[in-house]
Design a protein that fits this description.
- This protein has 47 residues and is mostly helical.
- It is built from one helix and two strands, in the order ββα.
- The protein is elongated.
- The model has no long low-confidence stretch (mean pLDDT 83).
Length: 47
């Protein structure tokens, strides 16, 4: 039963502040990426 596709992958079951869990996951991924770049930028040795 686990390996059968249901075909309802585009159905949105969960929303928070107008965004689905896919939207919030994307925003979290981008935010963490920007935070890591900022950390690398600030902690770089002076030239």
């Amino acid at each position: 039963m686990i390996f059968r596709g249901g075909g309802d992958c585009s159905m949105v079951d969960w929303m928070f502040l107008g965004g689905s869990i896919a939207n919030w996951s994307f925003l979290a991924f981008v935010g963490l990426g920007l935070l890591s770049l900022l950390t690398l930028w600030v902690s770089r040795p002076p030239t």
